[in-house]
Design brief:
The chain has one helix and eight strands; from the N terminus they run E-E-E-E-E-E-E-E-H. It is an all-beta fold.
Length: about 160
Amino acid sequence: MRKIELNAIGLIHTPFKIREGMPIQPTGAKGVKGTIIIESEFVEGLKDLDGFSHIILIYHFHKLKEYKLTLTPFMDDKPHGVFSTRAPKRPNHIGFSVVKLNKIEDNILYIENIDVLDKTPLLDVKPFIPAVDVVEVDKLGWLEGRSEKMGSKIADSRFS
């Protein structure tokens, strides 16, 4: 595997100190507030971000040390390939969440509906734009008929 080096642009702070009991998707974290502290060298990049109500966070699953190519996800009791799931035990330990942006003060982003561990390294921020980020889908694979329940699921020990 080719090595790539990434640097965190900030740190996500949330009420979740451990994975067990944490929501597995932002829809399950409705109303959960957090903050993001952006490193001073990247603050200029926040210009005009406050005009968006929602943002996409791309982050590093910093507590994971291994990955699994086949695993049993939260939404099923059968194993699936990791790339057909949103499970965190991925080869590159990268996750993303769409969260509500409440306000920005200096280098602090105040967010809501956050579903990540406290002190998660932030790799990037992008504005969420419904016209390009929401698409109609024809099929949902093994999640057909189950995806509506994703917001009610919480993490357990299976991905620790």
